[in-house]
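A reminder from the course coordinator: this example appears on the midterm review sheet, so study it carefully.

Given structure:
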């Protein structure tokens, strides 16, 4: 065996003794250790058993002094571990000062993490030797092994303070994705029936946020990085639907192609498998998005016969891991299932996990109000919002962008109206330079209603026939 594997594993025995000695002297030290230290964080098995005995007594509200600990160890047949009890008194005299308990804990946890990392590294070496023919699988398993070490390290209590200290901290301006609507690491699920427009809405949000526009009011916002993960449609179809939107985005001052990314996987993913977890992790790491939009949700896993709750919980847990690791907000779309009566239930398909999971659960359905323009969508909820936000009440077909939000009293204004902010960020007519509601033509040019009066709406999709939305949905000019 090489010197590399003959090295002594990291351990700080005096620090372990100091943690245990402090716990025998002070209940406060027990509480501090219990929040951050696991029994197997101790290198010596004797220290592990003493630690478990102290926690056992503490958890039952009993004194955890040397006499009580000795009695419990004797009852468990473990008195020999502490030399008849003498070692417990040695621990108490070893600790320099109880006040430094945090320092001792940090040293014990650090050495434990390094030992876990060494074990994970050894597993990676072994997988490398036996993994010929499945390199991707080996890489995925290796990353999963390292990730487990990181997850354990990250599980220590953090972001912990008094309420006063917490509220006195200034808000981070970088916490916002869409001001007043969506913040960092928040989760949105959009559910609707097939063809209602949820995929078009996702692409609309994808480009608007990267362009620095609020996708519902078109007010300027700080641009953010976005990643669209399409798990259903082939690249050619996605390209045709995205082309007009990206063309509009490029005409917004400050647009940067590097902010807007896409990944098409028409065969879907199985986020229960380490290999597919690795692929999504890599895509997020490469694109560095602030907001990831993905769907449809049912194509993010393969049903292997597990219970629905177990299967969906596993996928949700992985997405949460990516959300925390990369600091991203998530926007997922899913189909509305049929209920027993054959009607569409505007709740996420599959397990109740997805009904509980997001901060915002949006349900889209077509408006039946005669005052609304054709194909207007009402935004309902399949769960209550976890915070008050400025989501629109409705979405109506817009131009040149696919949608525009309808808020409160504005619900029944002229659908062809255009506010100053929308006009400012609309592309200019290539013939007269006018920015009043220009339409996107199939040849890539933009024309206003004065120069080319093709303003009729398509009966099939509801978009104006020269708009991005019509070209994306029907594929014809």
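Designed residues:
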């Amino acid at each position: 065996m090489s010197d590399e594997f003959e090295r002594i594993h990291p351990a700080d025995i005096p620090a372990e003794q100091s943690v245990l000695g402090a716990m025998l002297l002070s209940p406060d030290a027990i509480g501090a250790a219990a929040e951050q230290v696991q029994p197997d964080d101790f290198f010596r098995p004797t220290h592990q058993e003493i630690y478990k005995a102290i926690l056992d007594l503490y958890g039952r509200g009993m004194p955890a002094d040397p006499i009580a600990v000795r009695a419990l160890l004797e009852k468990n047949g473990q008195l020999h571990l502490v030399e008849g009890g003498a070692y417990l008194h040695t621990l108490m005299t070893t600790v320099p000062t109880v006040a430094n308990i945090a320092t001792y804990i940090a040293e014990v946890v650090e050495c434990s993490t390094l030992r876990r990392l060494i074990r994970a590294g050894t597993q990676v070496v072994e997988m490398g030797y036996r993994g010929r023919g499945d390199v991707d699988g080996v890489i995925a398993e290796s990353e999963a092994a390292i990730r487990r070490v990181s997850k354990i390290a990250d599980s220590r209590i953090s972001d912990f303070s008094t309420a006063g200290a917490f509220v006195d901290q200034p808000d981070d301006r970088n916490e916002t994705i869409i001001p007043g609507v969506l913040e960092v690491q928040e989760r949105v699920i959009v559910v609707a029936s097939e063809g209602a427009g949820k995929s078009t809405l996702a692409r609309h949000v994808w480009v608007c946020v990267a362009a620095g526009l609020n996708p519902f009011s078109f007010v300027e916002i700080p641009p953010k990085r976005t990643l669209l993960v399409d798990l259903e449609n082939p690249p050619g179809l996605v390209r045709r639907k995205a082309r007009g939107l990206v063309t509009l985005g490029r005409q917004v001052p400050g647009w940067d192609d590097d902010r807007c990314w896409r990944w098409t996987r028409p065969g879907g993913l199985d986020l229960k498998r380490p290999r597919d977890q690795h692929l999504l992790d890599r895509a997020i790491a490469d694109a560095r998005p602030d907001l990831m939009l993905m769907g449809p949700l049912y194509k993010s896993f393969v049903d292997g016969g597990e219970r629905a709750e177990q299967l969906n919980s596993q996928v949700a847990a992985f997405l949460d891991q990516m959300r925390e690791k990369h600091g991203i907000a998530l926007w997922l779309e899913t189909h509305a299932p049929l209920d027993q009566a054959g009607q569409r239930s505007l709740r996420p398909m599959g397990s109740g996990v997805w009904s509980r999971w997001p901060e915002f659960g949006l349900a889209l359905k077509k408006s039946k109000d005669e005052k609304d323009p054709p194909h207007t969508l009402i935004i309902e909820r399949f769960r209550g919002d976890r915070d008050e936000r400025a989501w629109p009440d409705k979405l109506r077909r817009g131009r040149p962008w696919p949608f525009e939000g309808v808020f409160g009293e504005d619900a029944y204004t002229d659908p062809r109206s255009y506010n100053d902010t929308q006009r400012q960020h609309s592309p200019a007519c290539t013939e007269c330079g006018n920015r009043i509601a220009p339409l996107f033509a199939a040849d890539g040019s933009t024309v206003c209603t004065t120069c080319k009066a093709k303003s009729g709406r398509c009966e099939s999709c509801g978009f104006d026939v020269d708009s991005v939305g019509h070209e994306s949905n029907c594929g014809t000019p």
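The chain has a mean pLDDT of 80. The two ends are 71 Å apart (CA to CA).
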